Amino acid sequence: MRLFGAIYQRVLGWSRHRHAERYLGGLSLVEAFAIPVAPELMLAPMCLAQPRRAYRYASISLLFSLIGSLIGYALGHYAFDALQPWLLKLGWMGPIERLVAELRVDVAKHPWTAFWLLVLAGFTPLPLKLFTWASGIVGVPLLAFFASMAVGRGKRVYLLAFLLRWLGPRAELFLARWVEWLGWGVIGALVLLGLWWFGSN
């Protein structure tokens, strides 16, 4: 079943649009508190299309992710009770409650202990919104939360920008050839990670 090749070509077209930076900023913003679509899906083709602007694109993605993470934190902190019925319908309550339990233990030990958990969260493909909402519900110290978001998301976008700028056309040829295998591999990895994570909590 060929699926990811068509998606890749569509996103590649968007990345060359004159408003691509706005799309990237908007996706990065909303992903941090509402949708599970990683902004790297937009960032990567943009870096491939214009390698010299890779770090600029990474900075845009990071900036709007940080703004979005503050929105997610505020929603969790101030509007969680009012939004619980909506979260239940979306199926977010289970994962958020598990993260809340973990963060409460960390914050009880030391306010900055949660920083490391949230930084490590940046290495996983779990949606950022789960961590921003849970942090707001627990009341993770705002400075520790913001620093963890900057480090966790920053290392992802800047590493991706560096690799794609360094590899250049080779990366585009590689993706064009192997995008189907990579796409289904990522889906499989996400399923396994989700089964492991939910099974261990």
Provide a concise account of the structure shown:
82% of the residues lie in helices and 0% in strands. By secondary structure, the chain is an all-alpha fold.
Query: Secondary-structure element order, as H and E?
Result: HHHHHHHHHH
How far from one another are the termini?
34 Å
Q: What class would the helix/strand composition place it in?
A: mainly alpha
Helix coverage percent? over 70%
Care to describe what's here?
- The chain is mainly α and 201 residues long.
- The chain has helices spanning 4-15, 20-31, 40-49, 54-78, 80-90, 93-109, 113-121, 128-138, 142-167, 169-199.
- The protein is 82% helix and 0% strand.
- The chain starts with a helix and ends with a helix.
- The model has no long low-confidence stretch (mean pLDDT 80).
Keywords, please?
single chain; mainly alpha; 10 helices; 201 residues
Task: Summarize the helices and strands and which ones pair or pack.
Blueprint: H1 4-15, H2 20-31, H3 40-49, H4 54-78, H5 80-90, H6 93-109, H7 113-121, H8 128-138, H9 142-167, H10 169-199
Helix pairs in contact: 1-3, 2-4, 3-4, 3-9, 4-8, 4-9, 6-8, 7-9
